[in-house]
Every structure is written in structure tokens, then in C-alpha cells.
């Protein structure tokens, strides 16, 4: 079956899919608003690679849910295609001599970087989804830099091979190949690529069988993954998504990314003695108990939670105090600035986050005290948590102990 046509078919799928993965990945990084503060900057040495960063919007509220859901789901769905593509070019990976000219050296280098970068990006992405921060403190820079290296090699490879791929795709009719059974399968004509064996064995699978096998594998992965982002009845089918399945019943019966125990939150940290410290840029400070917060004007917002692992919740009905109202208590009644949010958690990632002024000023941005008509559970951030439209789930900080308006570190 090996030959330039089959390789080109798999390559065309990756040609369409990998740029989407790259763009949605860059958008995911932008959603963390790394330019606001070192607290948010998970890749501090990005340099010129952060040229595209922009202030992440709060509308539509489901934006991050869609972009990150596409990123994770598409990445998993493309795994069978990537493996099939690598299988189809195995002879080229071990061709001899390894370098025949300067142009061939560039091609081989781009191929090595492409294969290595592709395997690295897909492997680290899948591990992070399955294991939750598989590389503590290092996943984001590894994945970020790996993506840029992969795309550089991808662009070079496409520039070198696109004309040949187009000619190859035109050399055979896809519909004809999909109607050709095993008995009619013949080797492709030998050419300079060296993919076609000079002494091919009898086929054990047709090309349509190979395409069907890869397509079925991708579709199966779509079925057992996409439900974590789509929700509804499909959520039960998300067998490969750790957060995709039904987390329980009741008002607090929706997904979480870390429990109170995993974050080191002790009973005394969120017990009756808990207080929220709110500080303004001028030094003005307010210390509020949960009962005092409950007496402040309350507002509601229907917002989802979406996380970097690709899972998301449907809209939950949150109730609490607007961040703008808390800013007004400490001297920012009109145009409140950004805010540093600190959790009482003792360990685990993202115990602090900086929200932009745009996020603070959105009327749906709350210090939430209740959800779906009930008090927050400890695992969902009791006694108080942040909920902000369109933000990554880890920036919806739980177990909040301090809000510092105008502060960044």
C-alpha cells in the first residue's frame, strides 16, 4: 500500500488539522493574559514568540470553552492520522545515505524536527489531559516552545513537499480508490521518493481498508472524548476524558479540576473564622466575613467553566457579589483596575491569578458564594470563589482569601 498517494492523503488531513491546533493553542495561552503579571505568565522567557498576545475578551462567555475544546478534541482525533502518516514514510526515515546534498540535508532536518516535534506535542498534550499537569511547572513552556518548533518544521516541510503532494493527489481518484477491494489493490508506480517497495509483497489490506481503519480510529476517539466539551447526553460517552463523566447530582454536581484536599485546603482555612481581605491601590482595606458578604447586594450570572484539559461544564447559575462592588468598597467606584486574586490553598498550581480591568468591570464577574441555588461545596471553592466569563477554569480561583485591586504580584 505504501506510496506517495497514500502518504499524501494522510498528509492532507494533517495539513488542515495541525494549523488549527497551533492557532487554538496560541489562543489558549493568550487566554491566560500572561502580559498582565508574572503571576499569569507560565512561559516567562517567550520573548518574541509572544508578539501576538492580546487582552482576552469576556464576550462571548463560551469563547474559551470552544477554542480549548476544539484544541484538545482535535489533537486526540488526529493521533491515528499522525501514526498512519509516520507508518507510511518509515522507509524514508531510514534511507541511506542520510544526506546527499545541501537541499536534501535541509529536507532531512525538517523531517527529523517535524517527526520529533509532532510526537512530542501530541504525547505531552495527551498526557496532560489524562494526568492533570503531568509536568508540574514545566508543561506550559514545553508545550509552547514545542509548538513553535513543530510549526517551523511544518512550514519548511510543506514548502518543500506541497507541489509533489498536489501532483500525487491528482494522480489517483479518491472515489476509485474507495471502491477498489483487496483483490484489485496494486502497488503505486515506483518514483524518486523511495516509498514504494521495489519488491512489494502481496497486499493484506486495500488502501480503502487503511483509510477506513484510520478514519474509524479517529471517529472512535472523537466519540469517547468530545462529550467532555459538548456536554449533554454525550458527556457520558467521554470515556477517555477524566473530567468528562458525570461527577454526581445536586447543585454542586459538575466537574472540578482539583479537590480541596488535593489543594491542601484545611477545614480551619474555610471554617467560621475565614475572612476575605480586599485591598485597594491606595492602601484602603476591608476585611469581610462570609456573613457580611451575604449581606452585600447580590447578583447572578449563568456561566460555564472550561479548563485547559478540554473539559467544560454547561452554564451554571452563580450568585454572589460583583467584583466592581468589592472594588468600590476600597476606593475604586468608577473604573476599577486589575485585581490580584489569592487563594488560601497551600499547594497545587494556580493559587494566584491576575484578572484584567476588563474582566473586573464585566457585570457578570463575581465573587461567587452560591451556585444553582445552594452554597458552594468545599471542592467548588467554599466559602467564596471567582467566576469570570470566558476565562480559563484555573483563573476562576477557588477558596479566595484576598483581593488586591491594582496589585499584580
UniProtKB/TrEMBL annotation:
Whether Transmembrane counts among this entry's keywords is yes
> Could you name the domain of life of the organism this protein comes from?
Bacteria
Which residues lie within the region annotated Disordered?
177-203
InterPro entries referenced in this protein's UniProt entry, alphabetically: Mopterin_OxRdtase_euk, OxRdtase_Mopterin-bd_dom, OxRdtase_Mopterin-bd_sf
Keyword Cell membrane (UniProt): no
Q: Pfam families under this entry?
A: Oxidored_molyb (PF00174)
Q: Which residues form the signal peptide?
A: none
- Family matches, as SUPFAM superfamilies: Oxidoreductase molybdopterin-binding domain (SSF56524)
CDD domains cross-referenced by the UniProt entry: SO_family_Moco
**Positions of transmembrane segments:** 12-32, 62-88, 109-130, 142-162, 209-227
What keywords would UniProt list here? Membrane, Transmembrane, Transmembrane helix
In this chain the Oxidoreductase molybdopterin-binding domain maps to: 273-406
Q: What is this protein called?
A: DMSO/TMAO reductase YedYZ molybdopterin-dependent catalytic subunit
The organism encoding this protein is Streptomyces demainii
Classification from the root reads: Bacteria, Bacillati, Actinomycetota, Actinomycetes, Kitasatosporales
